[in-house]
Specification:
The chain is an alpha/beta fold. 40% of the residues lie in helices and 18% in strands. Helix 18 packs parallel to helix 19 (509-519) and helix 22 (595-610) packs parallel to helix 25. The longest helix is centred in the last third of the chain and has 25 residues, at 677-701. The model is unreliable at 446-461 (pLDDT under 50).
Length: 702
C-alpha cells in the first residue's frame, strides 16, 4: 500500500544548532530524508566559530510523522534542536481575515459624509427603495458563509468554534479569486428551524448565502427552505460546487477516452450532500446509468437499511439495472468511479473489474479512496482532491466565480442551467493542446483574465505585474536573477507576483524557489511533472498568472529586470505585446554578444521572416510583455512546445490583430546559451514550420 506524500499542510520549521564542521549539513539532510521528510527551505540564522544555527523547513505526511522526524533530528550527533514551529498554526494565529475600510477618514468632512449626519440621507433613500441597498451598501458584494460545524471537511461534527478556521479560509478564497467579501458565520445550533430562521434574520445585509459543512440530510431541507423564502441566491457549496467541478473534470476526461456521456456507467461512493448533488448534475447532463454506493452497499429501490428521504430519491432515480451488493459488484464494467466517501475503499482488484480506459476520481481528503501510485497502471485518467497530485478536483474552482456571477447579475436564485454552464466554462479553461491524462481541470492558480483585473474604487489595487520565469535545471543561474527580480519589484510600490515554472527539473531548482517563497510570499512555484518544452512551461505560467500585465523572462537573467520599464511604457502607449529586442541600436542601449549568439539569432530571425514574421528583428528574445487580454488569448491557443513557440506567439498576435511593439533594451551575454543551436537546428526549423502551418490553418477556418 502506498504512503501519503509529505505536503506543506504538515510542515514544520525546525531551528537547529549544528556543529561548524564540514559535512554536518549533509548529515542533517540525511537524517530528515531517512525519516521520510521533504526538505524545503534551509535558511541561515546565525554563524559562529563553533556552531551554525539554521531554520530548516520540512514537509511531513501528518502530525505523527512530523514528530518522528523531529525525534530523529534530536538523536543526531553534533546537532541540537532549539525550537519547532508548525507553519500551519503560525498562519492561523489571530485569524486569517480582517475588515478594512474602503474610504479613508482624514477630515471632518469625510467623517460627516461617511457617518452622521450625512449617512442619514442614504438611509432614508434605502428606506424608500430597498433595492438601492445593492448600490449604496456592501450588500452588492457580500456573501454569508454559514455553518453549524456538523460536517467539517473530513472531520465530521466538531462544533461551530472548531469550524471557524475553515470558514475563514473560505472567506479568503472568495476574496482572493473573485473579489467577493465573505463573512464566516458559525451557528451554535443544529436545528433546521433555528438555522433557517437565523439566516433569514441576517439576509438583509448580504447579497448571497453560501451554506457550508452542514451534515446531510439536514442540509437538503435547509437549502430548500431558504431558496423558497429568500430573494437572494442560496448555494450549498459542499453539494453544488463539488458537483460542478466533478462534471467539468468529467467533460474533459471523456475527451481523452473518447466515450459518450449518455452511454457511461458511473459509480458514486458516498451518497451524502456532495454525492447526491453530483448524481443530480450527472443526470441533468445526460448520464443514464449511475449507481450510488454507501456503507451498506449499492442503493436500489427495494433497499430499506440506512435509507433517508434523499437516499430514497437516489434509489428511485438511479441504478436502472438494479445492481445489488457491494462496491465491487457496482464496479463491474463501470466506466467512471467518483469517490466522495472515505479513504482506501478502492483496490487495484476493483479497478481491474472496470471497463476499458477507466476514469477514477478519488476525492476523499486527505487520503483518497485509492492512492494514485496504486491506480497508475490501471486508470486511464486519475484525479484526487489533493493539491500535490495532478488533476485536483476542488470546489474552489467553482464557488468564487459562481458567486461573482450571481452578484454581478443580481440573480435571485440558483438553477441547474447555471450549474451546467459553470461546468462547461471550467472545462473550457483547458485548451485542446494542453489537455492530457494529467491535466483535465485548471490549476487552482489559473484565473483567466480578459483584460485588467476587476478594480472597484476604494479597494486595494489588483495585481499590476505577473513575472513568469520558466526554469528547467536552473539551480545555478536562477537564484541571482530571482533575487534581482524580487528586489526590483519591491521598489515599485504596487501589487505583483512571480511565478517560476519548474519544467520537470532534476536538480535543486524547486528548492531554490521554495526558499525564496518562504521569505517572499509573492513568489510561487508552479511545478510541472515532466519537461514538456519551454513553450509549454511559459504557457502554463502565463495562464496561471493574474496580473493585468505579464512578463515572460528567461531564468538566465540575460535581460536586467529594470529594463521592464521600457516594455511597460510600450504597453501604456497602447501595445498589446512588447518584445525586448537585443538586436536594435538606440541611444543608451548596450548589447554584448558572442559570435555564436549573433549567428544563431540571425539564422532564427531569417527563418522566422521567411515564414511571414516580417518586420520583427528579434523574435527569439526571452523578454516579452503582454496585456492580460493578449496573454489569455495567445497562450490559450499556443501549440508549439519547443523552439518555435516565440514565432508562433508573434504570428498569432499578428493574425488576431494584437499590436506588437519592439523595444530596444540593454542585454547581457550568457556564453552558455545557444551552444546547441547547430545540433538542434533541424528540429528547431521543423517546429517553426509546423507552427506557421498551424496558424495558417486556423486563419483559413476563421
Amino acid at each position: 500500500m502506498s504512503t501519503v506524500a509529505p505536503s506543506a499542510s504538515y510542515s514544520l520549521t525546525v531551528r537547529v544548532a549544528i556543529q561548524n564542521r564540514p559535512g554536518m549539513l549533509g548529515r542533517v539532510a540525511m537524517a530528515i530524508g531517512d525519516a521520510g521528510g521533504d526538505i524545503g527551505a534551509v535558511d541561515l540564522v546565525e554563524s559562529g566559530r563553533d556552531r551554525i544555527i539554521r531554520d530548516i523547513t520540512i514537509n511531513a505526511r501528518d502530525s505523527v510523522h512530523g514528530t518522528q522526524i523531529v525525534n530523529r533530528l534530536k538523536q543526531a550527533p553534533g546537532l541540537r534542536v532549539i525550537n519547532i514551529s508548525d507553519r500551519t498554526f503560525l498562519m492561523h494565529l489571530g485569524g486569517k481575515i480582517e475588515i478594512q475600510s474602503k474610504v479613508p477618514i482624514r477630515t471632518r468632512d469625510d467623517l460627516s459624509m461617511a457617518y452622521t449626519p450625512g449617512v442619514a440621507r442614504v438611509c432614508l433613500a434605502i428606506k424608500e427603495d430597498r433595492q438601492r441597498a445593492f448600490a449604496l451598501t456592501m450588500k452588492q458584494n457580500t456573501v454569508a458563509v454559514v455553518t453549524d460545524g456538523t460536517a467539517v471537511l473530513g472531520l465530521g461534527d466538531i462544533g461551530p468554534e472548531a469550524a471557524m478556521p475553515v470558514m475563514e479560509g473560505k472567506a479568503m478564497l472568495f476574496k482572493e479569486f473573485a473579489g467577493v467579501d465573505a463573512f464566516p458565520i458559525c451557528l451554535a445550533t443544529k436545528e433546521p428551524d433555528k438555522i433557517v430562521e437565523t439566516i433569514k434574520y441576517l439576509a438583509p445585509g448580504f447579497g448571497g448565502i453560501n451554506l457550508e459543512d452542514i451534515a446531510a440530510p439536514r442540509c437538503f431541507e435547509i437549502e430548500d427552505r431558504l431558496r423558497k423564502e429568500l430573494d437572494i441566491p442560496v448555494f450549498h457549496d459542499d453539494q453544488h460546487g463539488t458537483a460542478v467541478v466533478v462534471l467539468a473534470a468529467l467533460f474533459n476526461a471523456l475527451r481523452i477516452v473518447k466515450k459518450d456521456l449518455k452511454k457511461l456507467r458511473v459509480v458514486v461512493t458516498g451518497v451524502g450532500a456532495a454525492g447526491t448533488a453530483t448524481i443530480k448534475i450527472l443526470l441533468s447532463s445526460g448520464v443514464r446509468d449511475i449507481i450510488g454506493v454507501d456503507e451498506f452497499g449499492t442503493i436500489y429501490k427495494e433497499r430499506t437499511k440506512g435509507m433517508d428521504f434523499m437516499k430514497r430519491w437516489v434509489a428511485g432515480a438511479t441504478n436502472p439495472r438494479q445492481v445489488k451488493g457491494r462496491l465491487a459488484d457496482a464496479l463491474e464494467r463501470a466506466d467512471v468511479f467518483i469517490g466522495l466517501s472515505v479513504p482506501r475503499i478502492l483496490s487495484v482488484r476493483d479497478l481491474k473489474r472496470m471497463a476499458r480506459d477507466p476514469i477514477v476520481f478519488a476525492m476523499a481528503n486527505p487520503v483518497p479512496e485509492i492512492q494514485p501510485e496504486d491506480a497508475a497502471r490501471h486508470a486511464r485518467v486519475m484525479a484526487t482532491g489533493r493539491s500535490d497530485y495532478p488533476n485536483q478536483i476542488n470546489n474552489v474552482l467553482c464557488f468564487p466565480g459562481f458567486f461573482r456571477g450571481l452578484l454581478d447579475s443580481r440573480a435571485r436564485m440558483v438553477n441547474d442551467e447555471m450549474k451546467l454552464a459553470a461546468a462547461r466554462a471550467i472545462a473550457a479553461c483547458v485548451g485542446r493542446s494542453e489537455l492530457g491524462e494529467e491535466y483535465i481541470i485548471p490549476l487552482l492558480t489559473s484565473a483567466p483574465s480578459s483584460g485588467h483585473p476587476r478594480h472597484e474604487p476604494g479597494t486595494p489595487h489588483p495585481l499590476q505585474w505577473s513575472v513568469v520565469i520558466p526554469a528547467f535545471n536552473e539551480e545555478a543561474r536562477l537564484p541571482r536573477y530571482l533575487e534581482e527580480v524580487v528586489s526590483y519589484l519591491r521598489t515599485r510600490g504596487e501589487p505583483w507576483e512571480v511565478l517560476v515554472v519548474d519544467d520537470g527539473s532534476t536538480d535543486g531548482t524547486a528548492e531554490v524557489v521554495r526558499a525564496m517563497a518562504v521569505r517572499c510570499p509573492q513568489v510561487q512555484l508552479l511545478r510541472q511533472r515532466a519537461n514538456g518544452g519551454k513553450g509549454a512551461a511559459v504557457r502554463a505560467g502565463m495562464l496561471a498568472a493574474r496580473g493585468g500585465w505579464r512578463l515572460f523572462a528567461d531564468a538566465d537573467g540575460a535581460t536586467p529586470i529594470a529594463e521592464l520599464k521600457r516594455l511597460e511604457a510600450a504597453l501604456a502607449a497602447g501595445a498589446d505585446v512588447a518584445i525586448g529586442s537585443r538586436a536594435m541600436t538606440a541611444a543608451g542601449i548596450v548589447v554584448r554578444a558572442r559570435p555564436h549568439r549573433v549567428l544563431a539569432g540571425r539564422l532564427f530571425n531569417t527563418l522566422a521572416e521567411s515564414l511571414g514574421l516580417v518586420g520583427i528583428r528579434d523574435s527569439q528574445c526571452g523578454f516579452k510583455a503582454f496585456t492580460a487580454a493578449a496573454a489569455a488569448d495567445l497562450f490559450a491557443r499556443l501549440g508549439t512546445r519547443g523552439f518555435g513557440f516565440d514565432v508562433e506567439l508573434l504570428l498569432r498576435a499578428r493574425a488576431r490583430g494584437w499590436r506588437i511593439a519592439e523595444v530596444a533594451v540593454n542585454w547581457e551575454d550568457q556564453p552558455a546559451s545557444k551552444v546547441g543551436v547547430v545540433t538542434d537546428g533541424p528540429r528547431m526549423m521543423w517546429q517553426i514550420i509546423t507552427a506557421r502551418l498551424r496558424v495558417a490553418r486556423e486563419e483559413r477556418r476563421r
